[in-house]
Design brief:
11 strands; seven-stranded mixed sheet; single chain; 119 residues; four-stranded antiparallel sheet; mainly beta
Length: 119
């Protein structure tokens, strides 16, 4: 059973930084993509970034390029989202997700963590 547990959310002022963590367990993730998504109140969930666990290739939404960085720690089975230069529009619930490399669907989701950016 795959489990994803996020941590690190909170309240930060605009221009500040936060680092989210996603601890993954339940299987070997070598052939998985790990992603971060976010959902703001009244809006649909949107893709933020993902990383291919095997080689570390990363993908970013245009809205976060240059500000957010996804990374992984193989030894800890943990994925990180470093968020810099935060803006009020980054306020959302951020969720970690996992999918097998051959699939287009993220099958496993964490519970989410709230990020609030004040102006």
């Amino acid at each position: 059973q795959v489990q994803l547990v996020e941590s690190g959310g909170g309240l930060v002022q605009a221009g500040g930084s936060l680092r989210l963590s996603c601890a993954a367990s339940g299987r070997t993730f070598g052939n998985y993509f790990m992603g971060w998504f976010r959902q703001a109140p009244g809006k649909e969930r949107e893709f933020v970034t993902s990383i291919r666990w095997s080689d570390g290739n990363t993908y970013y939404a245009d809205s976060v390029k240059g500000r957010f960085t996804i990374s992984r720690d193989n030894a800890k089975n943990t994925v990180y989202l470093q968020m810099n230069s935060l803006k009020p529009e980054d306020t959302a619930v951020y969720s970690c997700a996992a999918r097998v490399g051959a699939s287009n669907t993220y099958d496993y989701w964490g519970q989410g963590t709230q990020v609030t950016v004040s102006s």
